[in-house]
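Shipment paperwork, digital attachment
Item: protein structure file
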Amino acid sequence: MYLSKQIRIQLAIFTAVAVVAVAIMSLHFMKLPAMFFGVGRYTVTMQLPQTGGLYASSNVTYRGTEVGRVQSVRLTDTGVEAVLSLKSGISIPSDLKAEVHSQSAVGEQYVELLPRNATSPALKDGDVIPAGETSVPPDINALLAATNAALKAIPPDNLKTVVDESYTAVGGLGPELSRLVKGSSDLSIEARNNLDPLIALIDQWQPVAQSQTHTSEAIQGWAAHLATVTTELQTHDQAVANLIERSGPAAAEAEKLIERVQPTLPILMANLLSVGKVALAYHNDLEQLLVLVPEGVSIMGATLVANANTKQSYRGAYLSFNLNINLPPACTTGFLPAQQRRSATFLDYPQRAPGDLYCRVPQDSPLNVRGARNIPCETVPDKRAPTAKMCESDEQYVPLNDGFNWKGDPNATLSGQDVPQLPPGSPPSPPLPIAAAQYDPATGTYTGPDGRQYTQSDLARSAPKDKTWQTMLLPPGS
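Attachment content:
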């Protein structure tokens, strides 16, 4: 048969293409070298209690990727062995668990390799995965039979009631259920985004659970108390209902009260803030006062015991007034001199003298033992000072004199301090004017500090000249 040159060229090209196609199909798709000669493959034996639907040519996956196929499945004396043909280029840890899964409801079983870690040696040709490290899915027939038996155990009437009540419960709640499903999805997404904190919470939950176990008695006591409270609420249900019913008008009245006191309440609260600061500074003294008040009341009550059950009981308390007048004498050291003191009969109120006026004798002097100089400092318990400023500073109290041994003027100082006492560093104040008034020698008339005119006849020039110390002690007209 004669073939032209063109036909021979075409046949040669077709033959080359066919050879290449068959080679590609045999090597890449059918993988004949691996199937017949094991090129690029190694085998691992997997022991199973039963096939679980596994068959030859089933896929073998590792982390969701196909790494081989089931070469054969055969019976043994103890169960079933499946020979896995795996790709040589993929390293699979040998410390693993092999599970048979079903890819769909109609079958299509495959083997999934689940390594426990990534540090164990890799699988090699001839390795065996023991039956203790393998599992198969439950028998679908047994599962369907159990499901059928469970459904038959449900009474049809009750099932119809459940379906009807379920329809009544969720009927018309499509949007709400949709939001619930969407919220669940968002929650799952957020949980996935915060997977590490959730895992840490789960891992660290054991100490929290142990603390709950250790405090179980306290929790039981709390639950018992809560049960008591709820029982009381149930018992007094009507009273609680009345309270809730009347709380609205009561709240309205409280609102009106707040509106009425709103103009003055801020001022009151500001004043209370100042009082609170003082109370906080003097809380020790207030505490001591609260301790001593009951004792003082008890002592005052004891004054009634002497006249109890007697004819004198109507007179009340039994007191003994033993007056020790001017013992010890009044303290004048540290106050204005006698020439500058004002009479107690004056009713005006001039500006007070600058500085501090108080009894300035030594702190252990018997004069005015409860004076300002002996007040304990609140913030410095081991210090006594007459002013809070001196308490807070490094300045120490310095008396003027001993209070008895006066040198000329009662306020003559031995320490060089001014009277009144001025703050440290302030310039000395000019002496106060002496409380004196000019008078008319002809009539004895003068103007008093209150602005009124007074007349004292013995100041006039016509007054008797026999002014002696004896006549000064006698009443007028004697």
